User: Which sequence fits this backbone?
């Protein structure tokens, strides 16, 4: 089956990716991404990874919120950091990128997690809480946004950007539509209505899908690619990636988008994308890495916002990708939380912190990007 082949690819790819340093995310574990991380308490159990953590002057509680794509990563980091650093509490709420940025610009959290870089107006807003400074984008993890579907009797579904755009824009409404049939000549497509699910909350995952469709299917997708909110008409909404995944899992003839980890956790088949390359590309960590490897730093100074290539036609490169950033103030952080912020981010981007992710189904940052983040974190003030 496709899922079994995909899991095999993932297992094979992780070893290679850890060596190459490709920037890829495929979280494993809990799929609850609508509330807090559940890691607010100190586990009291020091792991091998946690034993090498430099706690510095970390103390007290640190609040953070945002991206649900990195929830499982945060769970691991928080568990190890709290086990090593007595009396420290890291509380990360996976409420979506938009919600996290709002809390950050309102001064309610020390840093935000976002699957998209800060927009100019958000940087301006951050200057109100970052005294003499601003919010900056520090990449930590990235990976594929899967298009999951529930269509009994149909395996190995292939779609391209124009067809996806029309499905999510309610212009293709039946599974046996000519455009879908042309891409899947051997499939027995039913004459049933398509149930398309999207995020109800502001989401960097939504924004990355917008950017992909706007770039790869500009004639079919006319919605603002910078928006974190769903803009297309029709469809049904669900909260968080876990909500969309659960909706697709529970409704036949449905389709939706979420990080690959949610598809893997719930055994939801995913669409292969016809990019114009020699063969359709599956949503795997290895294939996403081929697209993310071409990312370039577009930020200036200490800002490491990346520019992704959503229109790639490289062989085996999966084009629907995202990068998750941690967003703190470069200057003007609160004195009471600054030591904990720096110690925690120093750990997450350290070789040990990245290695923990690799062991759990993630891949570490590319060497050159990780090195830049490691230089910036100690300068936070």
Assistant:
């Amino acid at each position: 089956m496709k899922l079994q082949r995909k899991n095999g690819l993932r297992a094979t790819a992780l070893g290679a990716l850890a060596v190459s340093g490709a920037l890829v995310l495929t979280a494993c574990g809990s799929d609850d991404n609508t509330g807090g991380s559940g890691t607010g308490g100190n586990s009291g159990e020091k792991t091998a990874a946690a034993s090498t953590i430099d706690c510095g002057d970390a103390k007290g509680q640190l609040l953070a919120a945002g991206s649900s794509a990195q929830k499982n990563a945060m769970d691991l980091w928080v568990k190890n950091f709290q086990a090593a650093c007595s009396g420290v509490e890291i509380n990360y709420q996976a409420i979506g990128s938009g919600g996290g940025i709002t809390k950050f610009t309102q001064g309610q959290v020390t840093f935000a997690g976002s699957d998209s870089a800060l927009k100019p107006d958000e940087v301006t807003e951050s200057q109100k809480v970052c005294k003499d400074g601003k919010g900056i984008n520090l990449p930590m993890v990235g990976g594929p946004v899967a298009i999951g579907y529930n269509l009994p009797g149909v395996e190995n579904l292939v779609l391209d950007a124009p067809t996806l755009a029309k499905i999510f824009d309610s212009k293709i409404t039946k599974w046996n539509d000519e455009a879908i049939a042309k891409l899947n000549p051997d499939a027995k497509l039913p004459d049933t209505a398509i149930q398309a699910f999207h995020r109800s909350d502001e989401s960097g995952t939504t924004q990355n899908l917008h950017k992909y469709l706007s770039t790869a299917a500009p004639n079919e997708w006319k919605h603002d690619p910078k928006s974190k909110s769903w803009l297309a008409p029709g469809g049904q909404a669900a909260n968080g990636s876990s909500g969309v995944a659960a909706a697709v899992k529970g409704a036949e003839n449905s389709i939706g988008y979420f990080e690959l980890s949610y598809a893997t956790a719930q055994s939801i088949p995913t669409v292969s994308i016809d990019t114009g390359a020699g063969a359709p590309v599956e949503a795997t960590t290895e294939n996403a890495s081929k697209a993310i490897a071409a990312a370039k730093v577009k930020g200036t100074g200490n800002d490491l916002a990346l520019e992704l290539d959503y229109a790639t036609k490289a062989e085996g490169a999966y084009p629907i990708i995202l990068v998750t950033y941690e967003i703190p103030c470069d200057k003007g952080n609160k004195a009471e939380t600054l030591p904990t912020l720096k110690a925690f981010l120093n750990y997450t981007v350290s070789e040990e912190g990245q290695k923990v992710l690799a062991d759990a189904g993630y891949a570490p940052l590319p060497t050159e990007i990780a090195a830049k983040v490691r230089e910036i974190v100690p300068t936070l003030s």
Q: What stands out?
A: The chain has 13 helices and twelve strands.
